[in-house]
Amino acid sequence: MIGVFDSGIGGLTVAKKIWDILGPLKIIYFGDTARVPYGNRGNEVIRKYTNEGINFLLKKGAKIIIIACHTASAICQEEFKNFNLPIFDVVKPTVKAAVANVREKNKRIGIIGTRATVNSRIYEKLIKKECPSCQVFSRPAPLLVPLIEEGWMKKVETKRILKKYLKPLKNQRISVLVLGCTHYPLIKNLVEIKIGKQTKIIDPGEEVAKNLQEFLKNHPKIREELPYGNSQFYFSDIGNYYPQIIERFLGKKVKCQRWDSNPQAF
Asked: What domain range includes position 27?
């Protein structure tokens, strides 16, 4: 199976993109909703939580791991090497796509994300490594996640706030905009309107799914072993409103199961 790990529910957009591109493969999803957000935690705690989440997915039979959390992707690169299986994070394929889509005469890339992702400067570092001549402009957009989870994607308040966040990037005449949070694809159409059609928008979930597709193409034996069927969705906390949010993210109802975050549960 494919295991998808996230600190919350944003990674569900990644799971959906995998289905869109690769078909209804069986996914086991774990969202650490009891301990979200990871961005205000220390690095050692983030590593601990991420390792626990990966080990849980392995115990459930995952053979490939997708790290859908930007914070975990930024902090835990060295830890990923300790696991003897393919691990994909959301940042690296997104960086490659951003660099591949810049215009020759306008190598200006914009990033919007949570404060934690922006403050980590992970995108700036990796983009400059791939493309030293690229200019990177980052803006934190902290209000977008709660607005999206509340279902306010079409509200005038959301449109105004998004416009305020994007205006400085639009003024920089960026040619590429990275959606540096897995919640943001739910308002991609609105972002396109506010930033302008001349700017290429990069969706991390789509890029991870494409990266996985390429990997499976080159490893047909692994591809043949991946099952189809009903996926499983685990969360360390399931509030009263989570099922509705999850349905909104996936476009369908799914059974949500609770996982005890006590490591002894492994």
From this structure: 2-89+206-265
Residues 85 and 213 reside in one and the same domain = yes
My answer on whether 184 and 107 are in the same domain is yes
Torsion of CA 55, 56, 58, 60, to 10 degrees: 170
Do 117 and 24 reside in the same domain of the chain? no
pLDDT grade for 78, boundaries at 50, 70 and 90: confident
CB 139 within 8 A of CB 112: yes
pTM surpassing 0.85?
yes
CA 94 to chain centroid: 10
Would you name the residues annotated as active-site residues? 69, 181
Q: What are the pLDDT digits (tens) for 215-239?
A: 999 999 999 999 998 899 999 988 7
Task: Give the chain's domain count.
Answer: 2
Taking residue 113's Cβ as centre, other Cβ atoms within 10 Å add up to 29
Q: How far is CA 201 from the centre of its chain?
A: 14
In this structure, how many other beta carbons lie within 10 angstroms of the beta carbon of residue 59? 12
